[in-house]
Amino acid sequence: MITNVTLSTKERLLLEDAKSHEEICILKYQNYANLACDSQLKAVFRANGQKEEEHLQTINQLLNGTVPSMSGGQSGSAGAQGSTQQQTGQMPQSQQQSINQSSSGSTSFNASDKDLCSDMLMLEKYVSGAYDTTIFEFKNAQVRDVLNHIQKEEQKHGEAIFAYMQSKGMYSTT
User: Fold this and answer.
1) What are the tens digits of pLDDT across the range 17-26?
2) Which residues form a coiled coil (predicted)?
3) Among candidates 148, 126, 164, which has minimal Cα distance to 32?
4) CATH assignment of 1-65+109-168, among 1.20.1260.10, 1.10.1760.20, 3.30.280.10, 3.20.20.140
5) Where are the domains of the chain?
6) What is the DSSP code string of 3-37?
7) Under a CB-based contact definition with an 8 Å cutoff, are residues 35 and 109 in contact?
8) Is 126 helix (H, G, I), strand (E, B) or coil?
9) Hey, is 137 helix, strand or coil?
10) Which band of pLDDT confidence, cut at 50, 70 and 90, is reported for residue 105?
């Protein structure tokens, strides 16, 4: 962990934007986990929401001039969910298996669940793209690495939503 990183005005403003993006993601994931009809979708939203809270902690650390270490997962993350899957933002294997098993079934789904998924997938695409731009605006390589780590996790969130949607017949790639 490095302390006393001085941020330019532009870097600070970009981090403030990222902070607001993370806050919106947290709020939406919490609300959508409660609104979702399907228990699998609730689990995807809850897992993604927990990672967004870690991202918010990391952004706040950066705003305070501290660059957290990314070697063991998010610095200061709540709980010792020490599995590599949790630290990289991937779905737990049981959740992935559950989604894969349901994909062999029917393609019936709740339309409101599809709307929730579409909204969150669109938001994750936007947030990932915002991080892509932000990364290139930072002069400190270690800060760029932290932001890149968050961006990769945002992509995993989108991947989890996509996998759920595809398994339920909500998203076709053909």
Assistant:
1) 999 999 999 9
2) none
3) 164
4) 1.20.1260.10
5) 1-65+109-168
6) --PPPPHHHHHHHHHHHHHHHHHHHHHHHHHHH-S
7) no
8) helix
9) coil
10) very low
- Residue 97: which residues within 8 A CB-CB, separation 6 or more? none
Give the pLDDT confidence of 19-68 residue by residue, as tens digits.
999 999 999 999 999 999 999 999 999 999 999 999 999 999 999 999 99
* Tokens 């399907």, located at residue: 38
Q: φ, ψ for residue 123 (rounded to 5)?
A: -65, -45
Written as one letter, the residue type at 15 is L
**11, 138 in Cβ contact below 8 A?**
yes
Q: Phi, psi at residue 73, to the nearest 5°?
A: 95, -170
Is residue 158 within 8 Å of residue 124, measured between CB atoms?
A: yes
What's the CA gap between 14 and 56, in Å, rounded? 13
Three-state DSSP class for residue 67? strand
- Alpha-carbon dihedral of residues 131, 86, 66, 130, nearest 10 degrees? 10
Angle value at C-alpha 84, between 133 and 41, nearest 5 degrees = 75
Closest CA to 158 of 97, 89, 77, 75: 89
Distances in whole angstroms, Cα of residue 155 to Cα of each of 101, 110, 123: 23, 24, 11
